[in-house]
Amino acid sequence: MGKYFGKKCFLSFLIPSLRVCVATFEGSIFSVHSFGGALFYFGCYMIVTFCGHSQYTGTGEDEQKIISLLTEIVGDHHAELYLGGYGSFDAFARKCAKKYQESHPNTRLIFVTPYITIDYQKNHLDYNKDLYDEILYPNLEDKPLKFAISYRNEWMVEQADYVIAYITHDWGGAYQTYKHAQRKKKPLFNISGKEI
């Protein structure tokens, strides 16, 4: 069992195929109730996000660290794993998250895209839709395109309950995301083992 007791919660109902979110608040239970043919859901989920250097070579040891961390902090609870989809560490994190999901079906893999342009959708999102359960676009339309990835990374950290990182040096975008997580006082796990 994970140690998480819920922060992001929802109450929704399903009338044959219509699902409507009606409230969000704190809690720790996931349950389904049926009243007169309508199903009511109350549940909580956690968000785990990842950040790491684009130049990275995955190892079996790092895979085990990530899966062990997910097992410890998520357990059998409902979770959304936010993934960036750029660089070697992001690809490795997705591979580990997918492996974890195979034995934990309450987990969803979500690609958080920094762009929503038509060209980007054709060239990148069409490919990614088969790798993830969902593609999410945070509202970044008022941000300059050249900084969209940085703003997306900050948004992912701000939504997260936990951040799993691979940081070995104090420069670059992954390091900036790591520092943002520290400033936001997010529970942070650097699997590189280096003090940064």
User: What fraction of residues sit in β-strands?
Assistant: 25-35%
Radius of gyration: 17 Å
Alpha carbon gap, first and last residue: 30 Å
Q: Which structural class do the helices and strands define?
A: alpha/beta
* Number of helical elements: 5
Helix content: 25-40%
CATH architecture: 3-Layer(aba) Sandwich
> How many individual domains?
1
Task: Report the mean per-residue pLDDT as an integer.
Answer: 82
The main β sheet shows up as:
9 strands, mixed
Low-confidence parts: 1-7, 10-35
What is the element string, with H for helices and E for strands? Answer: EEEEHEHEHEHEHE
Question: Short summary of the structure?
Answer:
The protein has 196 residues and is of the alpha/beta class. The protein has helices at 60-73, 87-103, 118-128, 148-159, 173-183; strands spanning 8-15, 18-23, 31-35, 38-52, 78-83, 107-112, 134-136, 162-166, 188-190. The chain has one domain (45-190): Rossmann fold (3-Layer(aba) Sandwich).
